[in-house]
Write a structure and sequence with these properties.
Helix content is about 65%, strand content about 0%. The chain has about 270 residues and is mainly α. The protein has one domain (about 1-274). α3 packs across α6 (about 155-175). The protein is globular and about 50 Å long.
Length: about 270
């Protein structure tokens, strides 16, 4: 048990280190240049979302997964497998597939998209975009992961390892940087270039590349797309603060379009956004 616990601490420190490193690299050599005001608003909104969501998720996410894993993991597919590197690796692959499938459903079904679209509403693309999620989107994901924990039969400490490792990759593939040899690497793991396509304004482009860590799922299920998007974010959905970010999930794009025609806007004409 001690090895996984030490790995938990190491991965958590690695996540903070990776976040700081990617921020530095984006500042020094960004792949794309975004407007200063929009970039600062994006950073502020994403940071606020992370702080608020993190308080809630610390209470419900990891704790829920630990409780479920501790009580029911022995009944799952890997419940009878001895604890060790092989079990950790298989658990990670299975969890990665579950998150891929959940991500696909978030785009496929309107009831889920209304929350997941908040993540896509960022009109910039940088490491903090990986922190921009609606709290309901994350809560629903916790339920899915709890069910997956029971079905897979992963031990509690393995679940934590999987969660922290996934967080590392989420930060990585949202980075606004170029990676040497990225085209070849993208056939193994999800890279920033693949995930930029996923954040394209065009639906035909952002409904692709659902993988979080492993590239195999998009290849296997033919959801992979290699396109450099012309623009990032969604046309109608825009949030400049945490309250707007939370509220926009309860408006469909069609209803939002009607609202935007009635309410004056500061800088953009509605006709340019539709």
């Amino acid at each position: 048990m001690s090895a996984p616990l030490h790995a938990d601490s190491f991965l958590l420190l690695a996540a903070f280190g990776l976040f700081a490193t990617l921020l530095f690299l984006e500042k020094r050599r960004p792949l794309r240049r975004f407007s200063g005001n929009g970039l600062m608003a994006s950073f502020s909104t994403n940071a606020s979302a992370f702080l608020v969501n993190n308080v809630i998720m610390n209470l419900l996410s990891v704790s829920s997964l630990l409780v479920v894993a501790g009580a029911y993991s022995r009944h799952g597919l890997l419940g009878g497998v001895a604890d060790g590197p092989w079990k950790w690796a298989i658990s990670f692959v299975l969890f990665d597939f579950v998150v891929y499938a959940w991500h696909y459903c978030g785009h496929r079904y309107e009831a889920l998209w209304r929350f997941h679209k908040i993540h896509h509403s960022d009109k910039s693309f940088h490491v903090t975009t990986g922190l921009r999620f609606h709290v309901f989107d994350q809560l629903l994901e916790v339920i899915v992961k709890c069910v997956a924990t029971v079905v897979i039969g992963a031990d509690a400490h393995v679940v934590v390892l999987c969660e922290i490792a996934r967080m590392l990759f989420v930060l990585f593939h949202h980075a606004n940087i170029a990676i040497p040899g990225e085209r070849y690497l993208s056939y193994v793991i999800i890279t920033p270039s693949l995930h930029r396509t996923h954040h394209s304004t065009r639906r035909s482009e952002h409904d692709s590349n659902y993988g979080i860590v492993l590239a195999i799922w998009d290849i296997l299920f033919r959801t992979r797309k290699e396109v450099e998007p012309k623009s990032i974010g969604l046309e109608l959905i825009e949030a400049q603060n945490l309250l707007q970010l939370f509220s926009l999930a309860f408006l469909t794009e069609r209803r939002l379009a009607r609202v935007l025609h009635l309410l004056p806007r500061k800088s953009r004409h509605v006709s340019q956004r539709i």
